[in-house]
Amino acid sequence: MSRPETDLLDTLSAELSQQLKDRVDRALLEFIRPNSASQFAQDAPELAKFREAIAQGDPKDNLEFLRSFREFVPTTNYESYRPFIAKFFTTPCKEADIKNMFAPGLPYFLAMSSMTSGKSVKIFPKYRPPPHLLHHPLYLALPPSEGIILSPASLKYSQTLQIDCEDGQSKQMTVCSVSTGFLRMAMNWDPEHDNERLDLWRKPVASLFLAHAYPQLTFSAGANRSICDFIG
Fold this sequence. Notes:
By secondary structure, the chain is of the alpha/beta class. It has helices at about 15-35, 40-45, 50-55, 60-70, 80-85, 95-100, 180-185, 195-200, 205-215; strands at about 95, 110, 125, 150-155, 155-165, 170-175, 220, 225-230. The strands form 2 sheets. A 5-stranded mixed β-sheet has the order 1-5-6-2-3. A 3-stranded antiparallel β-sheet has the order 4-8-7, with no helix packed on it.
């Protein structure tokens, strides 16, 4: 496919071009700044030059920070992340070992690839976005719609990992598809309470009644079973 003779960005006025650049820079900073303190950013060999540039410059200078990012952060593949992701599957898995791995805190879930680019599943930690981005289309497992439609979905996950927390407690983290993980995240459903939700819909008559009265309800059959979302 041939490249168009005129770049669309070149058709923007100087004012619009600057507004677009500023918006892109703000979006990049929103992601890069918090993640620059992650284990990956601090320890990955591929980011050594980026760390060196940041250390030698003014860490509060956003323009310099972005310039260093664009100049010294190379294109990477999955192999760069594999040793860091492997830490999630160690036994026992301690919170201190995986906290702030790629972003602040712990991932909400570990997403599985669909194996379209290889013979083995790849794992990608997914973190809860800031509140103002949680309902962004990027994080919606089910697209919004008008009217009443049936949207089949699933809460099935491949496995759960037990995380030994620093406070002496433990929590579970699901390994599942991206759509399942985002759906659970949007509804704030953790795997520890799936059995309680299963009991809620045990009687078919109750489900039918609620489906008629509340078409926006999500019906769940628990972990490793299907649900159907009714979006009104």
